[in-house]
Amino acid sequence: MTLTPVNGDPGHWRAPDWDGASPGTFAVVIGCSRYPWLKGGDRLGPAPMKWIKEAQGLGQLYVSALTARRFFDWICMDYDVDEAPIVSCRLLLSPTDEERTADPAISTHELTPTLANCKAAITACIRDINALPEAARERSRLIFFFSGHGLQSTIDRQILLPSDFLGDGLPSFNHALSTKNLLNGLNSIRVPYRYYFLDACRNDTNEIRQVQPKGDEFLPEYPTYHSYPKIEVDALLYATTAAQRAWQPRHPSEGPTLFGQALLEGLRGRPHIRLEDEGGKPSVKFFNLESYMNGRIAELLKSHQSTADQRVQPGGLPRPRVVTQLRAPYPATAPQVPMPPMTAPEISPDLLKSLGSKTTGDADRLGMRWRKAPDDLFKTHDAKQWPRENTAQERASTAPGQPAPGRPVYDLPAINRLVLPDRQAGEWRQDKALGRFLFGSSDAATLFAGSLQVSALSGQRLRRDDGMRLLNVGRKHLPGAGGDPDQTRYDITFALARFDAAGYWLQLFDESGTGAGALLATDETMFDGGQATYALTVDLTHDADGLTIGALSAAPLASGDSPVAQATRLWQRAQSESAERAVSKFATSSLNRLLQAGEQSPLATVITALVLLRADRLTLLGDLLRDLPGPSDGAVLWAEQVMRQHKDPKQAAQVAAGSLARLARRDLPVTGEALSLAATLMDRLSLDLEILDDATRRDFRTAKARIDASLAYFRPGGLFTAFAGFTAQNAWQVADGKLPGRGAKAAPPIPAEGRTEEQE
């Protein structure tokens, strides 16, 4: 259906034959490329605070307004859903001069996406929906699209920056839209289908994170038992995984963002997305769209000769429902774009053998590659073996976006290094030549050898673990884009020989003294071969201040037949394709075995349940999570399941809040997704405290304060709960979820040199 401009209402487009009372689809489409108050803008101001300087550095975008306009074109010309045609769209754009030249129509009926205009557009859209008769409202739909800058703290807590960010006189970090407020504030709107497409980076910034921006929460949020009970889908689709950036071309002549291009191709049913018949029409369903986009974005990155890794991620309440139908006579099914191998460390046959694997088939099954180590590896310390550090003359002529002159620049192709058994326990820390061989530079070797530590969390105190063995180091060069500095990604495999029922704390400090760490969960099934193995990924950024930690994530090694390894493979496939596709490729009997691991392997049950919740396969879970032993993740996932399944909203809120209140006396969730869910659920349920008894209300508030405090350091994205931005002085409080100043006793860090039996 063609939309036409509404006179006197800039940015508002409406179907000319819509009577205002019939069901339809309502859309808000926002595209921000030009940010006057950010770097490169014509109104850049002073930065009296660190977070403002950090925010200004986000700079200008190139094709976000163009991408939003292309989405608007699709919704006008190609969007099709029986009984809910597009009837109204509010379009807000801040294009660059290059975008105006590339597409003159972008300036038609223009409205700038300032925060005030965005709020007014969303409010007007809700007003139009509420004006419908009830029967029409319950057959209508809502679509929200945003392309521009974004910042996040948890999986479903992201702020979207309007074009006038930092332009509000007294700059406020809350001068932005809140995805949490959009989801919670629209819960009471009686529309069953809501889709949010968020084409924004999910940048992780230390200074901004410390102030914990929430955005402008202008939509009223009611207790959860006032939510519309007939919501079928309330799904977000993020352009990238947590703490990552979304890739876009540098000029409008190269087209929209990669997320936008893949999204629009998928919504149009081409080139190779799986379509399903719905009402006699080929249809694009949400999970098929998610899976298709992951494969397509990987293809587009390759065509742009980019080594970046960008994978979409769902949020909210995703379900396998129709996003759009196709008018053209496309076949009901189509071949799927082949997926690239899952992201994982490269593993050699020798490493698999050392882990007790019967064959090298595990590596084949995971899509991993390996290179056999030469027979004389490490037998000589001939300097010709080591990666070359650039000469002083080369360092003085570094190009823009490269490290500042005087800092080493390293030639780092994709390299995989197996650590021989007699050097795994600690020689890689002492032998500088060996360290440089493994990590590619003397600076990186010093950083890892001096500060990478794994400690057991036994007895509510840190114990230095003598059983850490370094097994394998893979690394690859990630060139900076758009003036960003280069990075090196390290995929490290290590083993722990000592079982600790409380798990472990891993930490690493960069040259500035800033730490990153992760909780490492474990269970006895991981030690069947005498040691538990883990995969650690660390991105080190090469900038003027030296090597800094860009990201850190950890997970169990996904090889072998232990329940945890099998569950981790399931989770990896969900990350690389979609949860629905991962579950469909696992036999139901295998899923049931992982779920029934119970007391033997509660960690495997937690990981499997995460994927099943994301895939909306709740019937497989039953009441298994209600009293799951082990990590507190089970209590969080049970609360999420109850909120989705329970027929009585008030009883659901009581049961879910009671389950979350148990976190007042338990450790932090060991998976990042469970901690994110805990933060999201506690925000929603904090409005329901009046229906709780006094003891539950008190414990809920205690647990919520602890979760909220951890968000200042929390870094979502990996399987295990990860943190960054802490110092050596408060590392233990971060690991324990008790930050300084909140009643926790300060404790010194575990020493980098030497070992002690106990460290409080």
From TrEMBL:
It comes from the Bacteria. Residues 384-409, 738-760 are annotated as: Disordered. Residues 388-400 have a biased composition (Polar residues). InterPro entries: Caspase-like_dom_sf, Pept_C14_caspase. Residues 140-269 form the Peptidase C14 caspase domain. This is Caspase family protein. It comes from Tropicibacter oceani.
